[in-house]
Design brief:
Structural class: mainly beta
Number of domains: 1
CATH class: Mainly Beta
Number of helices: 2
Radius of gyration: 21 Å
CATH topology: Jelly Rolls
Shape: globular
Helix content: under 10%
CATH architecture: Sandwich
Strand order of the largest sheet: 3-6-15-8-9-10-11-17
Amino acid sequence: MAIFHCRFFFTSLFIFCKIVNVYSSGPVYTPPDVERLTDRFNQVSVNKSYDVFFGGSNIHVPNNGTNADLSLDKSSGSGLVSKNKYYYGFFNAALKLPAGFTSGVVVAYYLSNADAFPHNHDEIDIELLGHEKRKEWVLQTNIYGNGSVSTGREEKFYLWFDPTQAFHNYSILWNNHHIVFLVDNIPVREVVHSNAIASVYPSKAMSVYATIWDGSEWATRGGKYPVNYNFAPFVVSMRGIEMEGCVINQKEITATSCLRGSPSSLDPVDGEQFAKLSSQEVAGLDWARRKHMFYSYCQDKSRYKVLPRECNSS
């Protein structure tokens, strides 16, 4: 968001104006053009694709079920869970985040199977971490595979826009080739399914979740700034939902059951166009990581005496 500051000098009829960006203290970058992956998939309504996960009284579904407002107040957070479980797929939600003083607030859009596999679950996370005054929201991505929850694989980014002023797309592409995290169709992170990461690569069917909750103990500067409920309720609005993947009903499925074997395959994201990033997407990924990433677990030598194996992989 930009504010125009002007000084008027009537004697000389001269107007001096400058534009001050009040959201980011750093330089403003224009994202590169990329293919719009969100245009390849159909949107679905909230009421046909999600059930209440928790905090039902803090969930409102207006506009005939196409949108949802999830809120956090002193009594509870709230969340939705997909009606289906998916093995591989493309998942998107357009979110508009709470404005104002949001320290300790966590908005999460993620895949997980912790309900079915409490001791060895998989998870693919997009977490948006609230901020103290005059600081930006932070985008955190993470993956867990086969219960590897003791070893976080976090990467953190500053956004190149104010996420409280309009809806922006947050997407996850997950298939046998790679996991890609995207913001407004710009890839910000790619996790390639290689031998180095195979043991912790998410490999079981998962549900899709959208939640808002109190992360006071860790979310803002390691828990330094807890949620201040004087500013509640905190409301995140969601629309533009896309969930296309191999729909699974049983608890577990092997990888071979969902790979593309014929044109009639149930897996919509295993085609050649989803196997690797395009040249435009590679350029977008490089831009996002050079300009906006400020933390990667692969660079955290104080945390890891021996870096995870995939950090040393090409």
